Amino acid sequence: AANEAVAFFPPLPEELVRLPKKEAVGLLQNAIRRESIQGRTLAVILRNERGDSKVCILKNPDDIDSLPLDNSTVFLPTHAGCLDPRGFPDPDSAEPVEDIADTDDRRRIFPDDPEAPIPKGWSQLRLNIQQDDENEAEPRWLLYRVSGKKTWHWDADSDLTSVAMNNQTLAEHHRRVGEVVRKMAERLNLEPEITKALGIAGENHDLGKRAKVWQKAAGISKNSPPMAKSQEGRFQPEVLGGYRHEFGSLMELERNLDSNTPLRDLILHLVAAHHGRGRPGFEDPRQWSQEFPEEANLEMAKAVAIRFGQVQGRWGPWRLAWMESLLKAADAAVSSWRDVGGERL
Question: Is the whole model's pTM more than 0.70, yes or no?
């Protein structure tokens, strides 16, 4: 069961921290002591360097001596604490940790008891069984959702990145991502010019989803406004033929973005890279836009690779990747509706 849990619900990068063994042991010992004071044991999952996982029940600090901790990963329950308010390891912290495992891409089953009656409304199980890439037709997902009297089932042949908890028009999605990424940049005290560039990228990152082929693949009605996320339908990646909406976004934005816009190259790169592609480029013609001439697509594909080298040379690999991650984080927050109310931003 532990192997299945970790395989179907692998930890996110933001859930992991690398510690020297001595510090990890001290952290676990304090967590065990706090649990024992409450008359409880500490249940953890231990994954060794070979990838095998097992549940370990720790009753006292000495139990840690029997654990093969070298090059292993220990999964702690949220109530164990051990993080300070900034999210850094703190063996003395007894405050429960916020559970951030659920995202727009994956959600654990609700209620906890799969046999319990389904409450009024809807519940769903999302399991990310491979890496996230909306345009690949490889099996990645298993999802069940129940809403009222209707039941939808997407099996492992489906692509669900356009299936959302709530419908989002493309215009609404762009507006909200722009607002969120600007708010993030302001709170990080980034330069006003960079904050503005991130906002422009957020407001235009999914322009390529306007393409008829993308809307058709997402099952969007011809009479509907362009959608970024939809609760209905079944995404059909085979309809795309390899098309990448980020490339389509670039084609649209490059011709509409004023040539004098500050940090124009950075804006275009952020749009290209917001799904991790554009590093260095889009060399496969199947990824190009069907709504532009082949010559224009070829020129853009060359420009993407050249631009990547230029912006990385200016900002450095780490700062550039960090700015890319801010746009990705804003996109994820809006896609999962975590931006509503702003309590997690």
Answer: no
Query: What distance in Å separates the CA atoms of residue 278 and residue 168, rounded to the nearest whole number?
Result: 25
Residues 6+ positions from 85 with CB-CB distance below 8 Å: 95
**DSSP per residue over 77-121, as a string?**
PGGG--B-TTS-B-TT--SPPP-----SS-B--SSSSTTSPPPSS
C-alpha 32: how far from chain center: 32
Would you state the structure tokens that stand for residue 283, as one six-digit string? 């060399």
CB-based contact 267:250 (threshold 8 Å): no
Question: What tens digit of pLDDT does each residue of 107-140 get?
Answer: 554 444 444 444 444 344 444 333 334 444 443 3
CB neighbour burial string for 34-51, b if at least 16 within 10 angstroms, e if fewer: bbeeeeeebebbbbeeee
Q: Work out whether the CA dihedral 172, 125, 78, 15 comes out positive or negative.
A: negative
Residue showing tokens 């069984």: 129
H-helix or E-strand spanning residue 304: helix 294-315
Q: In angstroms, what is the C-alpha Rg of the chain?
A: 23
265-322, pLDDT tens digit by residue? 999 999 999 988 888 889 889 899 999 999 999 999 999 999 999 999 999 999 999 9
- Give me 111's structure tokens: 């209620």
